[in-house]
Amino acid sequence: MSSLVDLFLMFFKIGLFTFGGGYAMLPLLKDELVRKRRFLEDEELIDLYSIGQCTPGIIAVNVATFIGYKRFGVAGAIAATVGIIMPPLLIITLLAAVLEKYMHNRYVSYAFAGIRICVAALIADIVYGLWKKSVTNYTGAAIFVAALILLGICNLSAVWIVILAGMVALGLKELKKS
Amino acid sequence: MIYFLLFYEFFKVGLFAIGGGLVTVPFLFDLSAEYGWFTAKELADMIAVSESTPGPLGVNMATFAGFKTAGILGGIVATAGLVTPSVIVIIAVAKLMAKYQCNSRVQAVMSGIRPAVMALILFAGLQIARLAIVDMLTAVVFAVMLASIHFWKKSPIFYIMLSAVVGIVLKL
After folding, report:
1. What does the angle CA A66 – CA A43 – CA A56 come to, to the nearest 5 degrees?
2. ipTM metric
3. Are residues A139 and A172 in contact, defined by beta-carbon separation less than 8 angstroms?
4. Chain A partners of B170 at a C-beta cutoff of 8 Å?
5. Residues of chain B positioned with their CB less than 8 A from the CB of A17
6. Angle, helices B104-132/A42-54, rounded to nearest 10 degrees
7. Cα(B75)–Cα(B82) distance, integer angstroms
8. Any idea where the domains of chain A sit in the sequence?
């Protein structure tokens, strides 16, 4: 990301291939920012998602804005945001007139059945890849299991899960000190 | 003025919809009831469209509603309204983070949140998998795809394009 244009183009590319919302963007971000450009560490990328989840607005936009700001300040935040929203903006504007036809096209539906499988596989692989960096001890493993149960069984909102996990970790730290 | 109204209403959605994705849906239903910029059926369709186009549901809906109401500029203005709160709030949070990053309490909180975010990522993946893996064929495609992602390590974009071709060829 040597320039604002580069930053914009990177997020445009990511926006074009993000199917299925904010978390589907994670494998793309990891590939571009952690592997290729070494701009972020795995841990920082995970931290960005915790912030993106708990702040107003769309997670994908929040994460893009944060990365842009970190690299180039306010101008970077705007360039990254415009980059990530430009592909859907263009595509929906172009498709608006033919939306019905597009959706009921057989080949579109075949292609997206394939893409959904791919996104599920990409996410499975990234959980495996990030596991060691993010779950470092038994407390972490317990928080992971508790979060899954609260999400899957209790239907608790993701926002509360992030806040609760942070409070538990802080509480444990203070307990250890005293 | 319609542009101002579009910006203002989608700004509110962006500001109050915390948690992303489907959290925006109830806010959008309210908008459709209040202004009739789009119908409830169009909103339901758009949820399906968002699974078949790139981009977040919120952005798609803002673009669609703005475009239908006030043309291309309307789509741009509504989308700008939706993301403006994000940009403002994130810049403020980023400034705070830079200041307190080295604080040991903040570090403890972040290390506790990371495993929870892993659970969120896994859960998002499971929900997509539940829609995607519906029979033996899709399960086999998933397994082959996962193995090639893991061992072959090409860029995610390569796999996404490949999987679209696979979907068409196998008529998934």
Report:
1. 35
2. 0.88
3. yes
4. 110, 114
5. 54, 156-157, 160
6. 80
7. 11
8. 4-134, 135-178
